Amino acid sequence: MNWSVVKNPTIIISAAAYGFLAYVVTRAGLFGLWLGILLLISLGRYCYAVLRATAQGRENLPAVSLDSFNPIGNVMVLWHIVLFPGLILATAPWQPTGSIVAILVACIFPASAALMGLTWNLAHSLRPSALLGVARTIGSDYLLLVIAYVGIFLGVSILLTWVVPQLMIVTAIFAFMFETWALLASFALIGSVIRTHRHDFEIRGEIIPREEGLLELRDKEWRRDLDRAYASIRGGLVASGYDTLHKLVEENQNSLDINHWLVENLFDWEEKKYALEVAAKLIPRLEATGNITGALELYRRCRHYDASFSVARKTIEALAAHAEDMGQQGLADELRLT
C-alpha cells in the first residue's frame, strides 16, 4: 500500500475545490439542489478516475474536468458510490442490524470499488464471487486496506468533531473539504493496492515500469534465440541448435539469470536432457554463491525427470548438509545414497 498517494497535491486541491462547491450548494437555495446533483455526479466520476489512474501507476493524477459535471453519460459510478453509504443510513435506526450492515459494507466496499473502477460494470462490481476473488487475490493487503480507509474516515470524523470547532474555524466549509479528501484518499489507496498486485489484474492503460519493460524486451530476445535453437534441433540440426544456445549464454556473460531462464524454458521441451545439461552446470554455481535452497530445489526437480541425474560429490554433500539443517533427514540420507 502506497500511503504517499493520500498527500498527492492533485487530491488535496480537488478536495478543497469540491468542498468549497459543496459549501456553496448549501447556500444556493433551490438552485443548489440542481448544482448538488451535478457536484455529486462529478465527484463520483472523479473518485473512480483517481482509482484508475493510481492503479495504472500514474504519478500525475488527472485534474477535475468540466465534462465530469455532464448529467448525460455514464452515471453508474454515481449509483455505486451512493449505494454503500445509503445502505448504512437506511439500516442505522435498526440495531444491531445497522451495525452488522456497516461492518459488511466496510469490508466489501474496497473490492467492489476496485471492480467498478477497472470494469465500469455495476453488476459485476456487486457479484459476491467477484468480490471474494478480489479479496483472495489481494490477500493480507486487503485487510490492511480496510483498516486504512476506515481509519481515515474515523480520523477525519474525530478531527471535525473535536479539533476544528476548538480552533473556531468556519466548520462547515472545512468539514466538506476534509470529508471529500477522505473519500478521494480512500479511492487512491484502493488504486495503490491494485497497483501493487497489478500482475493479478487486467488494468487498461497501465504504465509499465521501465525496469519491467526492459526485462520483457530481454525475455523476447532470449525467447527468439531459444525458438531458433528448438527449430534447429527438431529439424535434425542438433549442432546448430547447440551453437545457438551457447552463443545466447556467452552473449549474456554466462550469468546466473540466463542459465536460470534457460533451465525453466528448456524444461518445457519434450526432451528434458537439454534442461538437465544446463541444470548440471547451474546447481554447483548456485551452491557456491550461497543459494543452496535454490540448488536443492532444482536438483530434486531434475531427479524427478531423470533418476540417474547427478552432480559433483562435493555439491551433493553440501545439499545433504543443508537438508539436515532444515530438518529433512530423510532427504539428506537419500542425497548421500545417490
How many angstroms separate the termini?
47 Å
> Count the strands?
0
What is the chains' assembly state?
A: single chain
Rg for CA atoms? 29 Å
Number of helices: 15
Note the beta-strand portion: under 5%
Structural class: mainly alpha
**Which bin fits the share of residues in helices?**
over 70%
> Total domains, how many?
3
Question: What's the average pLDDT?
Answer: 82
TL;DR?
The protein has about 350 residues and is an all-alpha fold. It has 15 helices and no strands.
Can you walk through the features of this model?
With 338 residues, this protein is an all-alpha fold. The protein has three domains: 198 residues, no CATH class; 37 residues; 83 residues, Serine Threonine Protein Phosphatase 5, Tetratricopeptide repeat (Alpha Horseshoe), CATH 1.25.40. Helices cover 75% and strands 0% of the residues. It contains 15 helices and no strands. It is elongated, with a radius of gyration of 29 Å.
Describe how the helices and strands are arranged:
Elements: H1 9-25, H2 29-56, H3 76-91, H4 97-119, H5 122-125, H6 128-138, H7 140-166, H8 171-196, H9 210-234, H10 238-251, H11 256-266, H12 273-288, H13 292-305, H14 313-325, H15 329-337
Task: Quickly list its features.
338 residues; mainly alpha; Serine Threonine Protein Phosphatase 5, Tetratricopeptide repeat; 3 domains; 15 helices
